[in-house]
Amino acid sequence: MAALQLEKQRGRYAALAIAAVVIVVGIPLWWKTTETYRAWLPFSEISELDSLQLQLSVDIEVVFSRGTLTPEQQKKFPLSHVNEKEHQVDAKTGLRYKYETRYRTATIMEEDALNQPTAAEADLSLHMLSESSCGSVVVYVIPETAALLPEDVKVYVGQRRTALLRSPPFKSSWSLKEVLSNLDVKVEQVVSTMSFSHQDIVAALSNRVRMAKVTKESMADSMRAIKSSPGYEITFSLLNPDPRSHSLHWDIEGAVQSCIQPLLNKLAPIANFSVDSQILYYVVLGVNPRFDNSVSAYTLSADSLSHVINPVEARLGSNAASSNPVLNFLLYVPDSHHSPLFIRDHSKREVPSNAFHSPRWGGIMVYNVNEMYGPEAEPPVDININMAKVMGVFLAQLRLMLGVQHTHPPTGFVLQSPGSAGLADWELDRLLWSRSVENIATASTTITSLAQLLDQIGNIVINDNIAQQVSSAVTSLQSAVAELEAGNLAFALQYSREAILASERAFFDPSLLHLLYFPDDQKFAIYIPLFLPMCVPIVLSLLKIVSEAKKRRADKQAKSD
């Protein structure tokens, strides 16, 4: 009897020991070794980015030349003035524009530069004296009777960051405050033209705000331009559908170096560009042009242009080694059976450039060669393509694709052509403002969406690489916002590019794929067959020990009674 009692007691101790090991060691060890690894993320800082408040600061310098102010008014220079405007775009997005204007009189060297015979020469001379910082605007006020500008021109905007403003009529009795107040309207128009407008910035926030907040014109410009990217591939293709009739020659390398490369050099702060070219034979358009007897030529209507791209695109090929967006520019030479070929707009009028573009894809130009040779010419006829004419069209299309918006200046404004550079300095600044805001908006949306996803699904693995990319994106975003507020446009663009790269690398990391984590029902399906056979004997033994303990306690109480 004593041996049996000892054996039962030993069994109870063994069951308790096994249960203790399972509870104290087994369960914590299993929990630790099977838990989902989730590195720390700055959720509090990310939540602050969900409510985006941007401040754009512009430095403005207004320089008065000789003859625009009285000696008494000049004594009060230099002075400065700060003007701020606030716009609440929506509940989570706000904009503040800070214009810090400094007023001064022109130096002797600047006066000499303003005495040049033409405004273009004056603009170049002023640029040689001092180069304005990126994002700034310098306005030179010249006398009302100055011969530097034509009579009907009130403002001349040059290739750099300077503008010449004809002084409005001032009364000699006016105080300096009244003079500046009367001048501020024109200066504000100049800054809006050379720097940014509110609608341009709202259009750049299209990833965050509703379409109703953006004007149709700004939205059209935004939809036409290709999305911001660290790099772009630009491909020029010559399409020769009839090589038996035409032997085409084009100096694409020289044309790119002289016409396209200066523009790409200026856009280097925005993205990296690579350019290549190709010649494709026996490539035909996806639509059959119609012959118009009234002009004795074949025509393509505006409605049929959308059907041209897809068949041609299949022959263009792609660079599999690069993930950058591709901009295609196609030069199509019609075969002898469909020449000449002209493109017509929606009003049935011929397009002067004989070209069209597709938003975020590229452009196509039709180049007729039928007038370059007579019927007695023996095929294939050697044709030298006028690359200056072709590249002029492609350059205009490339500017639109990259987001260089067409500016509509107020009446009395004259904008100097950018010339061989392909892009004026102030046009570059306008693009930098838009791209910086667009990058910040896109990166903040991406990183907040990722944070919400990771917060809602607790089983997704967050490895150290993702945490590093998220932290880098948040830090770069904060730096970009701070640089915009300080008016350092170049640094703001640089940090915004780093932010969008880091946020997209984190969002599209392969480890975040849904196949790499298990929902709770799958976990139960895996672990129950493993743990149930082991846990049942332990649980039954513990229940038996508890029942025996209750029975012994009841027997003792009955004996004591």
Automatic annotation (TrEMBL):
GO CC list: GPI-anchor transamidase complex
Pathway annotation from the record: Glycolipid biosynthesis; glycosylphosphatidylinositol-anchor biosynthesis
Entries under InterPro entries matching the protein: PtdIno-glycan_biosynth_class_S (IPR019540)
GO biological process annotation, one example: attachment of GPI anchor to protein
Keyword terms, alphabetized: Endoplasmic reticulum, Glycoprotein, GPI-anchor biosynthesis, Membrane, Transmembrane, Transmembrane helix
Pfam families (alphabetical): PIG-S (PF10510)
Membrane-spanning parts: 12-31, 524-543
Superkingdom of origin organism: Eukaryota
Main subcellular location of this protein, as a coarse class: endoplasmic reticulum
Coiled coil: none
Subcellular location(s) of the protein: Endoplasmic reticulum membrane
Membrane topology according to the record: Multi-pass membrane protein
Presence of the UniProt keyword Ribonucleoprotein in the record: no
Family of this protein: Belongs to the PIGS family.
Protein name in the entry: Fructose-bisphosphate aldolase C
Organism of derivation: Sinocyclocheilus anshuiensis
Gene name as annotated: aldocb
